[in-house]
Known about the structure:
Blueprint: E1 3-7, E2 10-12, E3 18-25, E4 34-39, E5 45-51, E6 58-60, E7 68-73, E8 78-83, E9 92-101, E10 104-109, E11 113-117
Parallel strand pairs: 2-11
Antiparallel strand pairs: 1-3, 3-8, 4-5, 4-9, 5-6, 7-8, 9-10, 9-11
Amino acid sequence: xxxxxxxxxxxxxxxxxxxxxxxxxxxxxxxxxxxxxxxxxxxxxxxxxxxxxxxxxxxxxxxxxxxxxxxxxxxxxxxxxxxxxxxxxxxxxxxxxxxxxxxxxxxxxxxxxxxxxxx
Length: 119
């Protein structure tokens, strides 16, 4: 079955950096567009970034553009999100998910990893 397991979350000060990882299994990872999404307390899920199946095309929500970088390693079935210059408003549970379309997560997502930005 499809499994997506995130790691790398934690507590960081404003301006700091974190790198999230997602280990994928149970499907042909290299053939599927992938995304990162997040959910802040009391809010709905927000699509953060997406990457095409080959990794050649990436897109970002305006709120994270120029600060976050999505990447993937198809040989290792891994998805990554490098987050720099973190802000208080980036605090959320971050999910790795398949991508249905640009800006929309697909049917499968992981359990999430908590990112807390606090001074």
